[in-house]
Amino acid sequence: MALQQKKTLSKTSKVRPFPGSTTSSPQAQSLPSEIELRYKIAECYTILKLDKDAIAVLEGIPTRQRTPKINMMLANLYKKAGQERSAVTSYKEVIRQCPLALDAIIGLLSLSVKGAEVASMAMDVIQSIPNLDWLSVWIKAYAFIHSGDNMRAINTICSLEKKSLLRDNVDLLISLADLYFRAGDTKNSILKFEQAQMLDPYVIKGMDVYGYLLAREGHLEDVEVLGGRLFNISDQHAEPWVISGCHSFYSKRYSRALYLGAKAIQLNSSSVQALLLKGAALRNMVRVQEAIIHFREAMRLAPCRLDCYEGKRLIDCYLASNSIREAMGMANNVYKTLGANAQTLTILATVCLEDPMTQEKAKTLLDKALAQRPDYIKAVVKKGELLSREQKYEEGIALLRNALANQSDCVLHRMLGDFLVAVNDYQEAMDQYSIALSLDPNDQKSLEGMQKMEKEESPTEATADEDVDDMEGSGEEGDLEGSDSEAAQWADQEQWFGMQ
Q1: Which residues, at least 6 apart from 182, have a Cβ–Cβ distance to it below 8 Å?
Q2: What are 7-49's pLDDT values in tens digits?
Q3: Residue ranges under compositional bias (Basic and acidic residues) (predicted)?
Q4: Is residue 462 helix, strand or coil?
Q5: Angle formed by the axes of helices 342-352 and 377-389, nearest 10°
Q6: Residues 45, 46, 52, 55: what is their CA dihedral angle, to the nearest 10 degrees?
Q7: For the segment 430-451, what is each residue's pLDDT rounded down to a tens digit?
Q8: Which band of pLDDT confidence, cut at 50, 70 and 90, is reported for residue 206?
Q9: Which of 247, 399, 403, 498 could bond 223 through an S-S bridge, CB–CB 3.0 to 4.6 Å?
Q10: Phi and psi at residue 172, in whole multiples of 5°?
């Protein structure tokens, strides 16, 4: 009996070997190892958004048996979960095994590991392989990016781009375009994005920022074409959804923009642009507290991106909810983190303008910002607002004329029109409003300024127009009904995607 049990056990052990044991059977050799199975299970968990389960499965693999791709997945999951120390350890292990793993190098730099330390880990390989001297400069450039030093990063990447080995490199061009965007240089940013697209028509990375810039500049037809083209490439990336959302947002269809932003976040919860889109839509729908949640998450993911704070973003939400103390704390934090550049100075000045006690401080900050960058439009606009409050119209006109000497901007032309009206120069004011509307036909304030001047010039005609408007009121009601039905339609979509 005992002999028979021993034979049965022997047969069973041949059919089902212990994990990790070797066998000469061809069928067994074709099966994946236990480690590979664990990796594939973790992949499935990440697709299902079950990151904790994915981490648990990968942590079950002994440290010495973890391959570079396992460590890389672990590092990314740790980073996403906010476990920065564990993420750094895993990224370093990837680089120890694969010194040229560029994604792991970027991962370390994004976690505030010093560029010199990261470069030292790859130095032996850089020195032993010919034509690899560019890598140390590349690491230096991305160290500047992740420390928020945009201008030095731009200069370093531009020097890399001049090298023959990296000329017309799409990844570098996308990074350069993003840096110009962060530095507030919209023109060069769009130019570099277009260059990258020409080299690789199927590129998706960074196109959400490109679509946002085009929409912000009023090129909505181009945004629609770009979104459609990217949907044809893949609808499983966040970028095409963000682009379509930007088109809806700048068409003032905020409910639809909210839905599209939520869909993008479902596909990629780390998409900063998707979070900003959804937050902006919520902000314009007067759902300020919900908007703050999304802007704070975007800020956590990209603390060096000023667009997470400025404009109608986080600080604006605090100001809209009369939380001036929180807004001031956030502005000071940005200023201390990223240093005294034109953008941070303007952000801090924007908050100071909200408090009558800090008007002089705001003026000093704006003067410093304009001394650094006389062409920085946001600083010019805020300085113009301050001069308007103080009724220093001649000084405001001089400021705006100087700013418009080398660039044309709708807001600046409109503000100049307002200042000219204040000094009774109506003819040139009308010209400035016309230029503003030619740059942005949907600029309501320029249209109102022009209509106000026309009424003052011909009061009789203005009265007749008002009578006609009263008679045609029913048409306007129809338009409003249409917008309400559309809002209800997209509100249903929001419920479907769990946004209520």
Answers
A1: 150, 304, 305, 306, 307
A2: 443 443 333 443 444 444 455 456 668 899 999 999 999 988 8
A3: 448-458
A4: helix
A5: 30
A6: 90
A7: 888 898 888 888 788 888 887 8
A8: very high
A9: 247
A10: -65, -40
Per-residue pLDDT band for 235 (boundaries 50, 70, 90) equals very high
Predicted local distance difference test score (pLDDT) of residue 256:
95
For residue 252, is it left (φ>0), alpha (ψ between -120 and 50) or beta?
A: left
* H helix intervals, 2-83: 2-15, 26-30, 34-47, 51-59, 68-80
Q: Which two tokens stand for residue 289?
A: 């507290």
Burial label for 500, CB within 10 Å (0-12, 13-18, 19+), is exposed
Signed CA dihedral, 421, 425, 427, 431: sign only: negative
Q: How far apart are CA 51 and CA 131, in angstroms?
A: 39
Helices (H), 81-235: 84-97, 102-110, 115-128, 134-147, 150-161, 170-182, 186-199, 207-216, 220-233
Q: Residue 175 class from Cβ within 10 Å (0-12 exposed, 13-18 middle, 19+ buried)?
A: buried
Q: Which band of pLDDT confidence, cut at 50, 70 and 90, is reported for residue 458?
A: low
Output the six-digit token pair for 70: 């396992």
Residue position matching structure tokens 């990314």? 76
d(CA 69, CA 74): 9
Q: For 98, which DSSP code?
A: -
The DSSP symbol for 302 reads: -
Q: Is residue 207 pLDDT above 80, yes or no?
A: yes
Cβ atoms of 266 and 297 within 8 Å: the answer is no
Residue 247's pLDDT is 95
Among 264-268, 367-371, 443-447, which stretch is predicted with the lowest mean pLDDT?
A: 443-447
Percent of residues, the chain, with pLDDT higher than 90: 39
Structure tokens at 463: 């009265």
